[in-house]
Amino acid sequence: MSQLGSFEPAIKAVVIGASGGIGGALTEALAMDPRVDRILALSRSGRVPAATKVEAGRLDAEDGPDVLAAAELARDRLGEIDLVLVATGVLQDEARGIRPERTWRTIDPDAMARVFMTNTIAPALVLKHILPLLARDRKSVAGVLSARVGSIADNRLGGWHSYRASKAALNMLIRCFALELRRNNPGALCIGLHPGTVATPLSAPFQASVDAAKLFTPAFAAERLLDVIDRLGPADSGGVFAWDGARIPE
Fold this sequence. Notes:
- This protein is α/β, with parallel strands linked by helices.
- The protein contains five helices and nine strands.
- It has helices at about 20-30, 65-80, 110-130, 160-185, 220-230; strands at about 10-15, 35-45, 55-60, 85, 140-145, 190-195, 195-200, 215, 240.
- The longest helix has 24 residues, at about 160-185.
- It is globular, with a radius of gyration of 17 Å.
């Protein structure tokens, strides 16, 4: 079980996307950590892991007023926040016409806009309202799920244009927000997190091609990501880190 030993006790946490595979596993892992005091778990459905520490709430991260209301709820319920985890994202959604492009010939502007809304704009809206709530007198972290394929330097295969570009843009926003955060709250971190390939609905269409040893359970991914967060300090703010702690190239 992961324990956030580098944080002060009585941690107050917010999980966005807490009804998803990774978001739910993160919520469960935090609920089992004795250093965590309270968790505000938000999702579109409002269905999140049940625990005495967990308060569930509804949030559409793509709706500006909804995000503002959620931030006000977090401030009212928790006061200063020690840990924020944004676990939202989309790779493929047939109902919304979203599928990874193998070639530029299949790019659809409406589908691309929907991918950017979910993977880039929605996390930016969340951070806009949540970063000011991070604790100032102790370690505090805002972590956002990103992806290794968002690395420009590491791109050797191409394809998946909308997904790659949306995550690359997200990584840039994380860096920008980290620089601004450093001026206002030097001890706080804003980071990206790459969980690896996790057995969730997001990766389901592509799991057959993944080595079984590299297909992680949500619980394993959550534990590893919390371990990574625990080891990071203010100098790491703005970076994107994989589940094994390695910093992902830009």
